[in-house]
Amino acid sequence: MAVSIKQTSDVAAVITVQVSAADYQPQVDKALKNYQKNASIPGFRKGHAPLGLIKKQVGTSVKVEEINRAVVSALFGYIDEEKLQILGNPLPVEDAKEYDFATEENFEFSYDVALAPKIEAKLEKKDKLTYYRIVATKEMEDEQIKRMLENAGKQIEADTVEDNDVVYGRAIELADGQTKEGGIEAAQALILPRFTKSEAEKAKLIGAKLGDTITFEPFALYDGQAAEIASLLQIEKEAVPALDGVAFSYQITKISRREAAELNDAFFTEAFGEGSDIRSEEALRKNIQESFAEQFATESDFKFTRDLRALLLKKAGKVAYDEALLKRIFLARNAEAKVEDLDRDMPQILDDITFDRIKGQLLEAAGVQISDEDLNKFALIVAKNQFAMYGMTSVPDELLENYAQSMLKDERTKENLIDRVADSKLAAIAKEAITVTEKEVSPEDFNKLMSEDKKA
After folding, report:
1. E strands of 136-270, at which residues?
2. Quick one: which of 23, 30, 15, 5 has its CA closest to 107?
3. Nearest-5° angle of CA 114, CA 116, CA 120?
4. What domains lie within the chain, and their CATH numbers?
5. Angle CA(426)–CA(427)–CA(431) in degrees, nearest 5?
6. Cα-atom radius of gyration of the chain, to the nearest Å?
């Protein structure tokens, strides 16, 4: 089997694989004999059908399969042996010759390949970037303590409705101020005032007492949102539009309230365990600050990596690609992709390719590899941050580990995490190679910076 390459430009080439019968026939004969052993053909005992009949029935398809297997092996073997840096997978050339596989023995297959361009982008001390370290505000600490105390609290029954309560009652449809005969009646209608949409309707609830009966409009209370209204009145969503402007009576039968825990030893024990050193508000605030710092570090790193990407792309300058070939490769890989979308997104796609190539070069030059340990550590950080978003700052290690491992079982999530680990390692390399100025910012100011980046 002969394999050759013809470079059509600096960033594209055609690889040709020539195949003769000697390259595939032994494998075809072997495959047909194996097929014969297991073939069940009417008129013959299993495994005893004549080989000539087997060849007549499946000979051509087996031949095509073995030729394809041999060609693919030779093609990618050549790419590996020659250490060709290619983008995407090889594609059969357009207007390729068609063969009669049943009668012909010698074949020639040619493939277009997109060659990765050579990119020069070195990091130097004269390059400057700012690392924005996000610092939590005291208001954020206070809010976190409030959430923790609420989570550690207990449910109590109250006498007067407040915004954060859960209210239970009996809702009855009215007509002209009286109970409507055959109308809607929900014996266990549950309302969470803080999630309602109409301040005017909510005002009828706030301050109402246990046992009171109010008159309200469910449709207005939830601004016509069918799912919420259907759940409240225990009806089908299709029936909701007809309730626009319809009044209901609502007798309050129960008011449930989450009473926050007190900041005392019992709370500290429940939140952090008997052996924890956190036994005061000062120690708690320090713990919260550390948690925020860890949580915000990934956002700061993301911003730094994005700025680093912009710097490297600027250093790389205009990089040449065979855009027409790359579009063919993308469309072949994703049958649902639209040409117009690809045309629109191509500049961003090319920047992504350029950055990935530079990143790979810098990591390789530094001898950096991503290990399973790196991936597991990063997955734990991501898991911890996700729990922290919901005020859960003391999640048991075992639960964090299980959650992290569940993320790694999803291939797309795992690929994303690998990419983020690579970005963090690139950032570490950059911080040693360039001049980095650190600046503390509040979360609000940091979000403004991120918004400005999106507009740019």
Report:
1. 154-157, 166-175, 178-179, 185-191, 213-216, 248-259
2. 23
3. 155
4. 2-115 (3.30.70.1050), 128-143+279-455 (1.10.3120), 154-259 (3.10.50)
5. 120
6. 34
Coil, helix or strand at residue 196:
coil
**Six token digits for residue 44:** 């013959």
Please report, in tens digits, the pLDDT of each residue of the chain (456 residues total): 899 999 999 999 999 999 999 999 999 889 888 888 878 788 787 877 888 888 888 889 989 999 999 999 999 999 999 999 999 999 999 988 999 998 999 999 999 999 999 898 999 999 999 999 999 999 999 998 998 898 888 999 999 999 999 999 999 999 999 999 999 999 999 999 999 999 999 999 999 999 999 999 999 999 999 999 999 999 999 999 999 999 999 999 999 999 999 999 999 988 888 888 999 999 999 988 888 888 888 889 999 999 999 999 999 999 999 999 999 999 988 888 888 999 999 999 999 999 999 999 999 999 988 999 999 998 888 888 777 766 666 677 788 888 889 989 989 899 999 998 999 999 999 999 999 999 999 999 999 999 887 766
Contacts of 73 (CB under 8 A, 6+ apart): none
**Which of 18, 14, 19 is CA-nearest to residue 93?**
14
- Which pair of structure tokens corresponds to residue 382? 């991501």
Q: How far is CA 225 from CA 34, 195, 228, in A?
A: 64, 12, 6
Per the DSSP assignment, residues forming a β-bridge with 20 are: none
Q: In Å, what is the CA distance from 373 to each residue of 74, 299, 379, 405?
A: 35, 22, 10, 12
- Calculate helix-pair angle for 411-433, 339-365, nearest 10 degrees: 50
Contact of 196 with 149, CB cutoff 8 Å: no
